[in-house]
Amino acid sequence: MTNDELNPKEILEKILKRNVDQAEVYFTSSKTLQIDVLDQKVESIDGVTDQGLGIRVIKDKRLGFAFTSDFDEDILEETIDQAIHNAKNAEVDEFNGLPRGIVVQAESSAGLYDRAIIETSVEKKIELALQIEQTAYSTDKRIKKTQNVSYSDSEVEVWLVNSNGFSGKFKSNLCGASAQVIATNDGTMEMGFGMDYVKKFADLAADKIGQEAAEKACMMLGAKSIPSQNIPLVFDPFVGTSILGILSSMLSADDAQKGKSLFADKLGQRVSSDVLNIIDNGRLPGGLDTSPFDGEGVPTQETKLIDKGMLKTFLYNTYTANKGKTKSTGNASRASFKGQPSVGTTNFYIPANQHKPEQMIKSIKKGLYITRVMGIHTANPISGDFSVGAAGVMIENGQKTFPVRGVTIAGNLIDMLKAVDAVGSDLRFFAAVGSPTLLVSGMSISG
Predict the structure, then answer these.
(1) Are 149 and 36 contacting, i.e. CB atoms less than 8 angstroms apart?
(2) Which single residue of 101, 181, 203, 387 has CA 20 to 30 Å from 378?
(3) First to last CA, the chain
(4) Residue 273 contacts residue 417 (beta carbons within 8 Å)
């Protein structure tokens, strides 16, 4: 059976003849392209195509899963057999179940797919990558080398059907580019990074990527350490998304239910200052992770996790929702047909406020503008304690003065969230995670 002949509905019908209570067929077909350039030459062009389907069956509250990328009739039958066998040997779990009461039958790809991404020639995509590198060099003569410059795009087609009446499909794609460059001056060397990922090829700004990478590298030349002290910190949007990245798992109902999150017992409580909001929105226009439904067929939605400092809810898939006696938030995440649904974010971000970043900096007599943190993933997810390396630029009398490196920021995540005094107007997404500039009142740094 070829991909064109494959029909998940027909496979579902075969499964339901095998005396199971519930069944699901999840098909995906994906393509990726990556172009790497160095010194104005193409280093590599890699394209990968992957497709297959995953089968979940439930019998007497026992769940079985199997997958295949071979659509031969005999192999499909073996995959069904394997899923049923796995269910028979699984433990009973009262919370197993597929979503109910959701019926979607039309293809829903509006706003998700840009034909220009696939129709633009590889040659033009190479030109774009070369342009990024050239822009980095021309931005500042201190840029002596590029470490990595790349263009990439990807597309995925999803078709999901289940025995509770759901049938839905969509097609989505995106493209992006990044640059990592090295600046040198007076025997010192610094690295800078720029990136942008978008839903429309026409929105990809090559010049801005190269310029940003060059400016970040040059900005840090001559960086030095500073004495230990307690001062206000300003996190740039990239650092803000780094912090959000570790909060994402802590706001998962799965981690909360297992007691692996510092937010586990704080539902309905204040966990940040009232100027801070955190949202997950699977329907955000232009969002890289926007889709009509999640990895189980539940419609995606906007979920306010932290609203004016109060923890309102967690992110749920069907299993954790059943366990928590609530409804799924449409956050069943599947990396591919090879895996079962877990809880994951979609477009996860701190919405912008009215404060301009330059005004936030001007309000500070002495502080530190943080552009990079190292080791944030080592934060304790249960206690929230963290100690991370950081680099940035000193703020004195409302002005950025000299670059700083070799400092450590230590504290507790909830204490830090409660110390957020202002949220900037400059929301920026790095992939599907976004943050504006954040001003945090006095935090302990050590040099």
Answers:
(1) yes
(2) 181
(3) 64
(4) yes
CA dihedral 287, 156, 313, 237 (to 10 degrees): -40
Note the pLDDT tens digit of each residue in 49-63: 999 999 999 999 999
Q: Are residues 358 and 287 in the same domain?
A: yes
Each residue of 218-247: pLDDT tens digit? Answer: 999 999 999 999 999 999 999 999 999 999
Same domain, 208 and 236: no
pTM summary value: 0.95
What distance in Å separates the CA atoms of residue 29 and residue 397, rounded to the nearest whole number? 55
Instruction: Report the percentage of the chain scoring pLDDT > 90.
Output: 94
Question: What is residue 438's three-state secondary structure?
Answer: strand
| Contact (CB, 8 A) for 163 and 56 | no
Closest of 229, 232, 253, 446 to residue 331, by C-alpha: 253
Q: Which residues pair with 337 in a beta bridge?
A: none
Return the closest-CA partner of residue 325 out of 97, 68, 14: 97
AA letter at 69: S
Residue 108, pLDDT > 80, answer no
Packing angle, helices 73-88 and 8-16, rounded to 10: 50
Domain stop point among 162, 187, 218: 218
